Amino acid sequence: MAIIKTKFIWMDGKFVKWKDAKVHILTHAIHYGSAVFEGIHSYKADDGTAIFRLDDHLDRLFHSANALSMKLKFTKKQLKDAIKNLIKINKVSDAYIRPVVYYGYGNIGVFPKDVPTNVAIITVPWEHYYSTNLRIMISKYARHSEKSSVFGAKISGNYANSILAMYEVRKKCFDEALMLDLNGYVAEGPAENIFLVKNRTLITPNSRSALPGITRKSILKISRDIGIRAYERKVTIKEVKNADELFFCGTATEIAPVISIDNKKIGNGKVGEITSKTKDKYYNIVRGKDKKYSKWLTYVE
Ligand code: PMP
To answer: Would you say the CATH fold of 134-286 matches that of 8-125?
Structure first.
């Protein structure tokens, strides 16, 4: 999605004007991908602007920063307040929130000795990441395994792997990639998790090469409310190709139906009933219409 500018970006405790939010070219993260980040979504809900599962996202941010031995100068509470204040002063509501923690300026070597840890937060207005149903292709690039990265950490450098897969499939005119793990089981998309529906049951890969997504976790929980069984286990290529329904999910992506894979139609090639039901339920929750899940929302007063 194209960037829609807002007035301010939060950088290390200060609200900096959009045009002044710059870093030095020797910033360690630019050279080595030594940054960690989150993608968080706020919604215009009935009772105000609501941030979806903010605590879970910040917990993952700290887990990621810890994986790279970063020393954050801010507590979770401080970052939470910074996010809420930034949303207020930028006057956004349906927004994508991007906190990024990065090794800054201080040393040109790979090992970030004496390199400071900086933090920035960006909020941009946001609608839907994908506006069409997706035609996807299985990538030749395997997703990182626990042998090459840290499970559950959203490390910027890992996304070079996603970019390779996206270029590979976009050059062949597909919308999105599906990535496997090193054992050939289905892992996830370049920036989203995947669910398949078979015989009215939702199944998502338990691959340790997939990010344990917060949307995925939410879907596993809410599925019960719509009378659908959902669980995680190993998933093969054959199973995704023969699924009744298929969809990607993630904070930015939300729930994006997949209608074909490697040019093979999924189900009847249309958005399936269970995908639609899950999507409706999810939108009701994030917009504060389902009070059962109000604990997942942090309101910006
Ligand atoms: N996998 C990857 C690689 C991602 O970047 C994302 C987006 N954060 C996801 C899955 C989905 O995670 P979440 O639902 O927490 O946004």
So the answer is: no
CB 72 within 8 A of CB 65: yes
State the closest ligand 1 atom to the C-alpha of 251, by its place in the atom list counted from 1. Answer: 16
Residue 28 has pLDDT above 80, yes or no: yes
- The predicted model scores a pTM of 0.97
81-115 tens-digit pLDDT:
999 999 999 999 999 999 999 999 999 999 999 99
If you measure from the C-alpha of residue 154 to the centroid of ligand 1, how many angstroms do you get, rounded to a whole number?
A: 8
- Nearest CA to 162 among 181, 134, 139, 183? 139
Looking at ligand 1, which atom is closest to the CA of residue 57?
Answer: 15
From the CB of 251, is ligand 1 less than 6 Å away?
yes
90 lines ligand 1 (CB under 6 A): no
| Confidence check: pLDDT of 17 > 80 | yes
Distance from residue 193's CA to the centre of ligand 1 (Å): 6
One CATH from 3.30.420.180, 3.20.10.10, 3.40.50.150, 3.30.450.20 for 134-286: 3.20.10.10
pLDDT at 1 over 80: no
- Reported as a single tens digit per residue, the pLDDT across 116-165 is 999 999 999 988 777 789 999 999 999 999 999 999 999 999 999 999 99
Mean pLDDT estimate for the chain: 96
CATH (residue range 8-125): 3.30.470.10
Task: Parse the chain into domains and list their residue ranges.
Answer: 8-125, 134-286
Ligand 1: atom nearest CA of 190 is 3
Told to judge if 7 belongs to the known catalytic residues of this protein, a careful annotator would answer no
